[in-house]
Amino acid sequence: MISALLPLVLLSAVSNPFPGVKLVRTGNSALAVVNLCAPGVSVRATRYGERKGTPQTWASRVGGAQVAINADFFDFPGWSYVVGRARGGGQDWPAGAQGREPRPYWEFGPHLAELVANGATAPAAAAVASDIVAGHNLLIVNGVSRGPNFDGDAVITTAHRRTAVGLSKDRRTLFLYASNDNLTGTGVVSQLVAMQREAGAPAIDVATNMDGGGSSQLYVAGLGQIIASGREVNNHLGVFARGSGAAPMCNQVPPRGHLDAASCSGVTGWAQDPNDPDAAIAVHVYYGGAAGAAGVPGKSVPANLRRADLCAALGGSCDHGFTAPAPQSWFDGKPHLVHAYGIDSEGGPARDLPNPLNFSCAQTTPTGVKRHVLSQTALTA
Fold this sequence. Notes:
single chain; mainly beta; Immunoglobulin-like; eight-stranded antiparallel beta sheet; five-stranded antiparallel beta sheet; 5 helices
C-alpha cells in the first residue's frame, strides 16, 4: 500500500492562491490541488495551433489560465507531435501529430474528469471529452502505488525531474505536480501522497507520470513558473479558477435509473445518484406527459425500496427501487403518458428516466355512499 512507502515530507507552505485551488510547496517540488466543483473552475488542454510554449506563455495565450503544467512527451526540438492522444478546447490534434503509442490519457469534459488507462481505447466525442492529454507510466491505481517496479520502464525506475497528474476517487479533485528534484517513481508517489495529506485533500486514486526531465514545469499566476526549466513544450494542462460561474468539469453526474412499468396498479422503476450512491433520492412521477406540461400532475416518491436485481448492477447498492400509485384520473379508458424523473441529490439537473410509458385503464365507478358535506371544515379535511 502507499502508506508503507512514505517517509513524511516537511512542507514549507500550503496556500490558497485562487478559489478552489490549494498550492503545496516543499523544497524543489510543488503540488496544485484543484477542486473541480468549485465555482469558476475548469480544465483546458492545448490545441494544435497553441503548441510550443512554456506553461506560462501558454497560459497567457489561452486567456490567463491560473495554473498550468507541461503534459505529454513530444519530439524535442521538433515540436510537431506528441506521443499519446491530444485534444484541446474541443479540437483534436491532426492524426499524424498524436497517438503514436497507446498510452494512458486524461480526458475532461462536461461532468467528466477521468483517466483512460488503456490508450488503445478511442476517446469519446469532443462534446463529451473536450480536452485530452496523454500520460505515461501509471503511478497509482485504485489508491495503491504501482512501485517499486511500476511497468518496468527505465523512464520511471531511474531518477529524473518529474511532472505528474492525479485524480481523487470521486473524480472531483485534480492534482498537478512538478519537481526539480531527480526522483524515481517511488519518490514521486511518496511526495505526492505526503503533499496531498498536508493539503487535507482527498486521497489520490489514480496518477500518471507525465513528460519529465527538462520539460518538467509548473506555472501559477502571480508566482510565475515555480518549477521551471524554460523549455518550450508541445502541450499543456491548465486550470482556470475564476471564483464564480459554472464548474463544467465537476463530476456532478446526473441521476440514472429506469421506468420499468406503468399499469393500473401503479408505476415502478429505480433511480440512483452516482455521486451519492447509497442515498435514497426522490423521483418525480408525472401523469399524462412530461414535467412542465400544462395540466400534468406530479407526485414525489422516494427511491428507497430494496431490489435484489440492482445489487450486482449498482456495485452492491440495492435500495433504489420506487413505486407510485395509479391516480384515479387514469381510470377513464384513455391513453396516458407517464414520465419519471430522478432528482439530483446536489441540486443538479433532474434526469428524465429512460422508457416513458403510454397505457390506459378501463373506466371504473367508485363504490360508496353519497353524503352531504356539512361544513367547509369537513370539505377541507
